[in-house]
Q: What sequence folds into this?
């Protein structure tokens, strides 16, 4: 979408004139920063970019981007965005949502956007807590989470947004972390190049209501040992010196290999025709296994708006009808 | 229109059917009701009679009345499906109250409908389905054909099943397939009896079952056999003729309410060069809107069958934001789900058309029955002060103008518009005089032009005449801006919690809706513009009210009627009109919702005449009620 006669925009150009009002120290700042940087690198145009959000802390995002933006209602951003993308497929449509917005109140729209493969890019800020309503547990909070609405610990089992997206037929499913800027930017760029629905779950720290939710694997000291970077075509290795790996048994149950068995580490294929390996990684027990980030799945599939608009274009081309023909159609009679 | 819906021999106000017993007779009008199992093809039969009759130039009005179940247990009372039609040689407004002719395909149909058949009316019974088990299913303990309960009707008993099988002896269809043609045998009898032309039905069936010629052949054979049977066996001493109605000159087609509503939307879209986008989720009785608009892809109409009602309206809002005209179609339960999103469209000041094809509530209610009880939901069913334009259609043909008007208002004023129709209008049909395309009113669509470099775009800078904000399509250079459900500062559109600004925006959104009234033509009345009683109506009771009031006028009563298409805003001249009468009466199929609105707004003692039983008003009941009101006024 770049043209020769217009200068490429910089990160600064994507900043709106509105003061950013997230809590100081919120992970959202680093995500905003990474997205602005990635958008500038991608040569995006302000007027071709639309950011649509629901309700929650993350959903304030559009106000801080000097693009088109629509801050809609709770959980419904994918539905509004679907209407936008269907109506003008040339627009670059991004949805910004959170774990409450997308996984709870808007769960239905999220799975159906995935199923249809609409050309939307969904950034799901997952802080495993309700921030804007001041700290209740969310559908991604671990069981036993003590909050104001669960003083004895939450009884709900959480679900994994990645597994949900895969189960719903997601064609691009990835995970990034707020503080790992370059990796996050790379995920944003890969999502951008995907034609169908692209979903990035972004682990985001809420330093007020759920501080340190991810510290157990994102802190510098433990990061190498506790995180698994997914790289297409490369074996699933982790550890300080890549001395450990993940392999699967015949039932796609993961297990850790090391030493002489390191060569058995599974070679990652994000384009695999089965979602099984991605699902296996998405549902690994966080306490026993490293936490994977990167692209879980990326497959090509014609997208929804293409199919819809193709039908309309073909009908318009093949069956021209004037308004008069339409209204005067069927069995008519004259009264004189 | 010439003539009025008055008492001429066979009308609904005559308790006795005037169909003569012998000789060739010319009639003004006839009311026929087809009733049978929901699998007996009564809707198709009624539809065929309607098409033929419309093409023959009669005025016609129809009322399909069917169960919600696709196939309720065969032979039972809940499974009875009926189709009433009234045709005439003069201008009529309703499908009639009581039928002159009842076709009952089984005992359940007989039991459900015999109570309404006029005295001395014709009752055509299918004898084949009066076995002991059939009677039991219909909860008859005694065979009604033998206990004298049918005395006073002209009963014609025919074993339709046997006759149809005989007629189709050479057909390759199995007995089951043959039996399915018995409705056409009955139709053939009625075609002879009322001198209907058979060609339109031949053509229609050939089209409907184009891929199954054996079915077409069998149906036509059964119809021809029924026709011949009626003619030769002399079960009737006469056949009847209903001359064409004197209608205003023009080209006509028979139309159902949901169809014409869709055509109105598409016509406005073409006129304003604004493409339509429908987001919808199937719901009775609105699904036909989704079906119909889905067939207009060649006119650039996009339809999106969403995952739920909320997604449907949200996608429509997304489409409107992008520069298309977003529409969502549903019924009351769906409107309840969409309420929050409609509030967003009000806040974002985007055009949107919400079609509520009302049905009997509350909750799931009676999905296939009609009601007008969603008016207050349309007016007030959202959080906060969130006024929206509410307009209503009153007949199948009127729905075209209302659909058109909804788009015109939404795009000119940049507001969401709620259209109230109902199941009676949606599925009923009438002849529609087709409009002159060139004379349709303009549809104003003003997209904001590209911005000027260095000048910040103001998304809430308003058109002084309408207070509409600019329609700034994403993709347009220089117009980047953010909108949303949070309160914003006027002009700049920036988020604002300022007290004075909020008050100003509340007032502005209300004023925007109120200003729509400036577009409205003066109110029309049937009858004088002052007098004893004004009957006000909105929506589908229009026909029953018109029929009742014109009959009373012919009897010299000082009574007029007027109809409200615009419910929010109300016409500016409504108050003066109401004050010109001693009494204002408002019949509506709810517990007095519009009456309450008018009473509170104008402090006028509007008298509510309420009926909430899932059925349309009968014109006779309205007439009787108004007669008592007239006596009280005097």
A:
């Amino acid at each position: 979408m770049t043209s020769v006669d217009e200068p490429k925009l910089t990160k600064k150009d994507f900043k709106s004139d509105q003061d950013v009002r997230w809590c100081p120290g919120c992970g959202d700042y680093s995500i905003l920063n990474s997205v602005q940087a990635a958008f500038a690198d991608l040569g995006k145009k302000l007027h071709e970019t639309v950011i649509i959000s629901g309700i929650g802390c993350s959903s304030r995002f559009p106000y801080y981007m000097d693009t088109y933006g629509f801050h809609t209602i709770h959980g419904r951003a994918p539905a509004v965005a679907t209407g936008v993308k269907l109506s003008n497929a040339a627009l670059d449509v991004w949805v910004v949502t959170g774990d409450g917005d997308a996984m709870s109140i808007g769960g239905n729209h999220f799975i159906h956007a995935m199923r249809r493969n609409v050309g939307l890019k969904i950034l799901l800020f997952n802080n495993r807590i309700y921030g804007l309503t001041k700290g209740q547990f969310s559908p991604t909070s671990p069981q036993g989470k003590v909050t104001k609405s669960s003083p004895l610990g939450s009884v709900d089992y959480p679900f994994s947004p990645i597994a949900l997206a895969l189960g719903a037929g997601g064609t691009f499913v990835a995970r990034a972390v707020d503080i790992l800027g370059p990796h996050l930017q790379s995920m944003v760029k890969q999502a951008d190049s995907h034609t169908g629905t692209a979903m990035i779950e972004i682990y985001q720290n809420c330093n007020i209501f759920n501080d340190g939710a991810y510290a157990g694997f994102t802190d510098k000291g433990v990061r190498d040992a506790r995180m698994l970077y997914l790289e297409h075509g490369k074996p699933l290795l982790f550890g300080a010196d890549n001395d450990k790996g993940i392999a699967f048994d015949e039932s796609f149950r993961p297990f850790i290999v090391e030493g002489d068995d390191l060569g058995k580490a599974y070679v990652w294929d994000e384009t695999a025709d089965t979602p099984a390996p991605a699902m296996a990684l998405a549902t690994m027990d966080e306490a026993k296994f490293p936490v994977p980030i990167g692209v879980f799945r990326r497959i090509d599939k014609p997208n929804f708006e293409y199919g819809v608009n193709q039908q309309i274009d073909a009908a318009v081309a093949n069956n021209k009808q004037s308004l008069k023909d339409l209204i005067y159609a069927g069995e008519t009679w004259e009264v004189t | 229109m010439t003539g009025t819906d008055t008492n001429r021999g066979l009308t609904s106000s005559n308790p006795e059917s005037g169909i003569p017993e012998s000789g060739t007779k010319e009639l003004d009008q006839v009311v026929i009701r087809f009733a049978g199992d929901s699998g007996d093809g009564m809707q198709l039969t009624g539809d065929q009679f309607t098409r033929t009759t419309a093409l023959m130039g009669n005025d016609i009005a129809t009322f399909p009345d069917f169960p919600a179940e696709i196939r309720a247990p065969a032979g039972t009372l809940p499974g009875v499906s009926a189709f009433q039609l009234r045709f005439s040689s003069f201008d009529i407004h309703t499908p009639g109250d009581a039928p002159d002719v009842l076709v009952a395909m089984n005992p359940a149909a007989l039991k459900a409908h015999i109570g309404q058949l006029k005295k001395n009316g014709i009752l055509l019974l299918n004898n084949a389905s009066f076995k002991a088990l059939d009677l039991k299913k219909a909860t008859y303990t005694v065979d009604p054909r033998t206990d004298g309960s049918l005395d006073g009707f002209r009963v014609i008993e025919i074993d339709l099943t046997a006759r149809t099988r005989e007629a189709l002896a050479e057909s390759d269809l199995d007995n089951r397939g043959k039996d399915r043609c018995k409705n056409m045998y009955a139709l053939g009898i009625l075609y002879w009896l009322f001198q209907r032309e058979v060609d339109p039905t031949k053509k229609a069936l050939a089209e409907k079952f184009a891929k199954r010629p054996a079915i077409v052949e069998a149906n036509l054979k059964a119809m021809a056999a029924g026709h011949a049977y009626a003619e030769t066996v002399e079960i009737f001493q006469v056949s009847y003729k209903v001359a064409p109605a004197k209608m205003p000159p023009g080209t006509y087609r028979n139309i159902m309410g949901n169809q014409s509503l869709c055509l109105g939307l598409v016509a406005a879209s073409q006129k304003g060069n604004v493409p339509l986008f429908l987001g919808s989720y199937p719901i009775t009785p609105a699904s036909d809107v989704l079906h119909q608009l889905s067939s207009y892809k060649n006119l650039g109409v996009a339809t999106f069958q969403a995952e739920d009602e909320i997604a449907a309206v949200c996608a429509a809002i997304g489409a409107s934001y992008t520069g298309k005209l977003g529409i969502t179609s549903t019924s009351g339960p769906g409107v309840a789900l969409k309420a929050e999103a409609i509030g967003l469209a009000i806040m974002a000041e985007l055009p949107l058309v919400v079609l509520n094809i009302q049905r009997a509530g509350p909750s799931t209610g009676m999905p296939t029955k009609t009601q007008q009880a969603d008016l207050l939901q349309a007016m007030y069913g959202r959080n906060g002060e969130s006024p929206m334009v509410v307009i209503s259609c009153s007949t199948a043909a009127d729905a075209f103008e209302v659909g058109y008007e909804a788009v015109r208002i939404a795009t000119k004023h940049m507001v969401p518009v709620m259209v109230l129709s109902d199941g009676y209008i949606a599925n009923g049909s009438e002849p529609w005089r087709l409009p002159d395309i060139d004379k349709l009113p303009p549809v104003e669509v003003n997209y904001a032009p590209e911005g000027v470099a260095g000048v910040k775009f103001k998304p809430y800078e308003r058109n002084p005449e309408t207070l509409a904000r600019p329609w700034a399509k994403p993709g347009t250079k220089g117009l980047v801006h953010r909108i949303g459900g949070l309160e914003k500062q006027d002009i700049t559109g920036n988020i604002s919690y300022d007290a004075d600004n909020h008050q100003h925006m509340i007032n502005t959104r209300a004023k925007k809706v109120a200003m729509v009234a400036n577009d409205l033509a003066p109110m029309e009345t049937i009858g004088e513009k002052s007098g004893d009683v004004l009957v006000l109506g909105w929506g589908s009771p229009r026909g029953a009210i018109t029929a009742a009031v014109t009959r009373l006028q012919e009897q010299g009563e000082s009574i007029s009627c007027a109809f409200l298409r615009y419910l929010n805003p109300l016409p500016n001249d409504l108050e003066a009109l109401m004050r010109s009468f001693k009494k204002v009466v408002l019949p509506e199929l709810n517990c007095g919702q519009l009456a309450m609105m008018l009473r509170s707004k104008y402090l006028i003692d509007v008298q509510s005449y309420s009926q909430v039983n899932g059925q349309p008003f009968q014109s006779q009941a309205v007439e009787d009620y108004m007669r008592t009101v007239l006596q009280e006024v005097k």
In short: The mean pLDDT of chain B is 94. The domain at 253-439 of chain B is CATH 3.40.50.970 (Rossmann fold).
